[in-house]
Design a protein that fits this description.
Keywords: Glycosyltransferase, Transferase. By secondary structure, this protein is an alpha/beta fold. Helix content is 41%, strand content 12%.
């Protein structure tokens, strides 16, 4: 019987890569061969931190390959360009992707221009696990006889909201009225969340005008993309039943099968390098010099862009809160340019002992550090889960996509933090950060949730059991495809 060999293909964004690389590493730990597929641009950005062969010290059962995304290397690939990246990848990567899956007629191995040495010991690909944002990859694999499984890197609650978009239109809850008024009006059309969601808590795309373009209304296109995951053999979500049991129950009947296998960052052994930015490890030494639970960690992820006015409000709110803070400030994060003056402003306003700024941080190490007292975050799903695993209270300021609904769950369901969406005022920042740092109730909730999700990923826990079931499912698919 041929060995199971899974091709793992994330959408080429930092958050998607992180999540799916944890998944790939967990598969390797279960004895499965894995090929992890980057774009050529991202593999170049990773440089010496990843290569076409297994990194030193990692399992010989994992390798890294790449295909083109169709954009020039100097293209920004910023949050404003995501739809362009989406279209270009689908148009330009399909040929090399199919070549990777289709055996060569002479060697029985993948085509040489996209593969490593066929004598490396890797069996043929027997299963594809592709990001749900890449439906063309899932379809191509099935056409070539390779069973395909979808993976969505968002929360189950946000995925359910995407699936519910047609119902929201049917009920008249979408589109929103022009002008952005009434964002606190309740939303009844997402099953299981009728008493919870407000308009402002729906995924950010729901606020866009209902305009048509070459793919139809944006909201309807996203709903179709989510529903298309139901055509795959199964859907994998990086979540746990204890976090999102109701949402999972509503999603499951619409999928071929459903596996809730998270938080993956707590399940896998250390993964190979995945950061597209160079991490500044010096911030750990700075944290070492701070008192326990005294530091506010601030990071809005890999895509969020803020205005200079928003930067100023956050800065002075953090300074007024009176706690030392570690701020991840990407070079491309502040609109209209960012230069040394911004970094100097942090030091000047907060004092060198009160503030530390880095371009990118080793976030998991930061969140588990004894000095961190709360996390001011964009509420991306990876960050939300990483904070949950470490029991760190959060202040959520969502930027886009699924982050609006994630922040609602943090504040109103799990009660592990505070939801500050749609407000960027220094007085609110000061008040909210202080409450998150000082509230014994929020900290107790955060620590209780951490204990629960750690039980979920431990042997016999719900996520560990689901992952074991998934590995058996993949091995069965792999057998049927050979």
């Amino acid at each position: 019987m041929a060995a199971a060999h899974v091709l793992v293909f994330p959408f080429p964004l930092q958050g998607h890569i992180n999540c799916m690389l944890h998944f790939a590493t967990a598969l390797v730990g279960a004895g499965v061969h894995v090929t992890f597929l980057h774009t050529e641009h991202n593999l170049r950005r990773l440089g010496g931190r990843a290569s076409a062969s297994a990194p030193a010290g990692s399992s010989p059962r994992i390798r890294f390959l790449s295909i083109p995304d169709g954009l020039p290397d100097d293209h920004r690939r910023s949050v404003a360009d995501l739809f362009e990246l989406f279209k270009s990848l689908a148009a330009e990567a399909i040929g090399p992707f199919r070549a990777l899956l289709a055996p060569s007629p002479t060697t029985g191995s993948p085509a040489a221009d996209v593969s490593v040495d066929p004598t490396s010991g890797f069996p043929p690909v027997t299963c594809l696990v592709a990001d749900g944002l890449l439906p063309w990859a899932l379809d191509a694999a099935e056409e070539l006889g390779v069973p395909a499984v979808a993976f969505r890197t968002v929360s189950a609650c946000s995925f359910l909201a995407y699936l519910s978009v047609p119902k929201l239109f049917e009920l008249g809850e979408l589109p929103f009225p022009a002008g952005g008024a009434g964002l606190d009006e309740p939303v009844r059309g997402v099953p299981g969340m009728e008493s919870l969601l407000r308009r402002r808590d729906l995924p950010s795309l729901c606020r866009r005008p209902n305009e048509t373009d070459d793919v139809g209304p944006a909201q309807q296109a996203l709903a179709k993309l989510s529903a298309d995951s139901g055509k795959a053999r199964a859907l994998i979500l990086n979540t746990a039943a204890s976090l999102e049991q109701s949402a999972l129950a509503h999603v499951a009947p619409r999928m071929g099968d459903l596996f809730a296998v998270g938080p993956l960052n707590a399940m896998s052994s250390p993964a190979p390098a995945s950061s597209l930015w160079s991490e500044d490890d010096g911030c750990i030494a700075w944290l070492d010099g701070q008192a326990d639970r005294s530091v506010v960690y601030v990071s809005f992820g890999s895509l969020a862009v803020i205005t200079r006015d928003q930067f100023t409000e956050f800065l002075y709110g953090l300074v007024a809160a009176g706690y030392p803070f570690l701020w991840v400030l990407r070079p491309d994060m502040v609109e209209a340019g960012q230069d040394a003056a911004l970094r100097e402003a942090v030091g000047g306003a907060g004092g060198s002992s009160k503030a530390h700024v880095v371009a990118w941080a080793p976030q998991r190490d930061v969140l588990r550090h004894r000095a961190v007292g709360c996390f001011l975050t964009h509420a991306g799903w990876n960050s939300t889960l990483e904070a949950a695993v470490e029991g760190v209270p959060t202040v959520c300021w969502p930027f886009s996509a699924d982050q609006q609904i994630n922040s609602r769950f943090v504040g109103a369901v799990w009660k592990t933090g505070l939801d500050m969406k749609d407000v960027c005022d220094r007085a609110v920042v000061e008040k909210t950060v202080r409450e998150a740092m000082e509230s014994a109730e929020i900290r107790r909730s955060a620590q209780a949730l951490a204990q629960q999700v750690r039980r979920d990923v431990a042997a016999g826990g719900s996520s560990a059991t689901e992952f074991d079931r998934l590995v058996k499912f993949i091995k069965k698919l792999s057998t049927s495809s050979t």
